[in-house]
Amino acid sequence: MLRYTNGLTLKEIGEILSVGDSTLSDWLKEVIKEAKEEQKRKIIELYLRCLTREEIASKIGLTQERIGQIIRKFISEEISTVNLVPESLQLFNVWNFMHACRNRN
């Protein structure tokens, strides 16, 4: 479950403000997007630190299945995107080296 900087869930914020989920989602569209991106970065960082899906799920509060989906997407589509990998964990990706060399010619 996604928690925001104040530690509350979207549902809890809606109850405090007495507004529906859709209204609150519209108001907080950018905040929600940023929170999800931060959550995704944290998942990838934990994955790159060799934590298991179970360990990541317990730290983040998502299901192991959802953690697996995010990791698979990272591996298949986004691993070459340097900005997703924390600077402390950035290593030269030898698997994409040949692909990069072919594209230069």
Report strand %: under 5%
Number of domains: 1
Helix content: 55-70%
- Mean pLDDT score, rounded? 78
- Kindly provide the radius of gyration, computed on alpha-carbon positions and rounded to a whole number of angstroms: 17 Å
Large-scale geometry: elongated
H-E order: HHHHHH
Runs in which pLDDT lies below 50 for 5 or more consecutive residues are none
Compact description:
The protein is built from six helices and no strands. The protein has one domain.
Notes on the structure:
It is a single chain. The chain is mainly α. It has one domain (10-104). 63% of the residues lie in helices and 0% in strands. The protein is built from six helices and no strands. It has helices at 10-17, 21-27, 29-48, 53-60, 64-78, 97-104. The longest helix is centred in the middle third of the chain and has 20 residues, at 29-48. The model has no long low-confidence stretch (mean pLDDT 78).
